[in-house]
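Q: What would this chain look like folded?
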Amino acid sequence: MIILGIDPGIAIVGYGVIEFSNQRFKTIAYGAITTKPDVKTFRRYEIIYDELEKLIKMFNPDDIAIEEIFFNTNQKTIIQVAQARGVILLCATHNKLNISEYTPLQVKQSVVGYGRADKKQVIYMVKDMLNLKTELKLDDTADALAIAICHAHTGTSVLKKYYNIK
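A: My prediction, written as C-alpha cells:
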C-alpha cells in the first residue's frame, strides 16, 4: 500500500509518501508544497491543489492521510489553513483516493507511543522508523511522514477493515 501523508498549511504543506508492505516501511518521497505570502490567497490555494495533484499523479497512492487541524491562537491563520485543508480534501476526492483523518494526538501516539510528545521526539522516531539517513529540515515534512506512518499502523488494521471503521 502506498500512503500519501499530508500536514496541511497555507504557506507550507508537508507531504510524505511511504510504502507499507509486510509490516515494513519504504520511504518513497517527502518534501513540501510552498506558497509565498505576497501571493493572493486564492492563488495560493490553486498552487496547493495543482502541486498536490502532480504528486498524486506521480506516486499514485492508494490512500491519503491528513492531519486534522489543531486550533492554536491565530484565528486568521486557522481559517486559511482550514480552507487549504478543504482544497487538499477536494483534490484527493477528485482523484478518487481513500481519505483518512488523524488528530495530532493520534499521530504522536502511533509514532512515539505518547500523545503529548514534542516535535523532537516525533522527528527522531520518524527518522528511525523510516531509516532515513538525512535530517528532516522541515517540521511539516516530518509531520507528514508521521501521519503516513500513523495511517499505516491504524488505517490498515484488520479490526478497522472488519468493522468498516472510517
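Residues 24 and 134 are 19 Å apart (CA to CA).
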